[in-house]
Write a structure and sequence with these properties.
Layout lengths: L18 E12 L6 E12 L3 E5 L6 H8 L7 E6 L2 E2 L5 H11 E5 L10 H11 L6 H10 L15 H13 L5 E5 L7 H18 L3 E4 L3 H4 L4 E6 L2 E7 L3 H11 L2
Parallel strand pairs: 3-8, 3-9, 6-7, 7-8
Antiparallel strand pairs: 1-2, 1-4, 4-5, 9-10
Helix pairs in contact: 3-5, 5-6
Length: about 260
């Protein structure tokens, strides 16, 4: 007796993700005339919501400038930037300041903690300055996930570098921002602490639905991301999906890094 063949329906494509932050025709020029430096030269980029995106490129490629423009920390010379449906390039300084406090989180290479305040005060200070109170349940959840619950009364000098960066990550996550921007977040850490911090950033994406955009020069760090956006001479130079350290090293080698 013959057995009828089973037909397998075509697999449906995954649903498209919403865009967290994007730019179109982005240009940033420093200086004028013969001394002008074109840090960004017509960049189009879109970052998916709920994804971990790394920005990489050779030295001088414009990766930090791109992050600063996307985060509203720097004003482009031309082009447009959107945070969700909000066009940042149409906002004034006061509007940008309020938006950064409410909808953008920052993690930098320097931890930027106030030495006179303990960990808890450093974490909650930006929200206090914005005149808002953190949600207690969310605060407790963030502290537990980052392993800080027993370090809240410690001042920065009483914490290791990795712990200080965890405090900075908690501070960035507390307002539930649309995007967390991380600029070389492991630059001041040893390899073990750096791996822990990168793992925590990735877990905020996987488990908490956070959007993270990270600038890094380290292929091993970029391998924690879902996607790597490559820049060269201020222009887009391709991207890598599901990167590995080896694939990033190869791509950077081709760019001449």
């Amino acid at each position: 007796m013959s057995v009828p063949l089973m037909t397998i329906p075509d697999e449906a494509p995954p649903p498209a993700r919403a865009t967290a932050v994007s730019a179109r025709g982005l240009r940033k020029t420093y200086g004028t005339g013969d001394t002008a430096v074109h840090a960004l030269d017509g960049v189009d980029v879109a970052v998916d919501r709920g994804a971990f995106t790394a920005i990489m490129g050779p030295s001088g490629s414009g990766k930090s400038t791109l992050m600063h423009c996307l985060a509203g920390l720097d004003t482009p010379s031309a082009g447009q930037v959107w945070l969700g449906d909000t066009e940042l390039t149409r906002l004034g300084d006061d509007q940008l300041t309020r938006l950064r406090r409410q909808r953008i989180g920052f993690v930098f290479q320097a931890f930027n903690l106030l030495p006179a305040l303990d960990a808890r005060a450093n974490i909650t200070l930006p929200m206090q300055l914005a005149g808002t109170r953190p949600d207690r349940v969310w605060l407790d959840d963030v502290l537990a996930r980052l392993g800080l619950s027993d370090r809240l009364r410690h001042r920065p000098h009483e914490l290791s570098g990795g712990q200080q960066q965890r405090v900075a990550i908690a501070r960035a996550l507390l307002p539930r921002p649309d995007v967390v921007f991380a600029d070389e977040p492991t630059g001041n850490l040893d390899s073990r602490a750096g791996a822990e911090v990168l793992g925590l950033l990735r877990s905020t994406v996987r488990e908490m639905g956070q959007t993270v955009v990270m600038v890094t020069h380290d292929p091993a760090a970029a391998a924690y991301a879902d996607r790597v956006v490559l820049l060269a001479d201020g222009r887009p130079a391709g991207e890598i999906q599901a990167p590995t350290a080896a694939s990033v090293i190869d791509a950077l080698h081709q760019l001449g890094d």
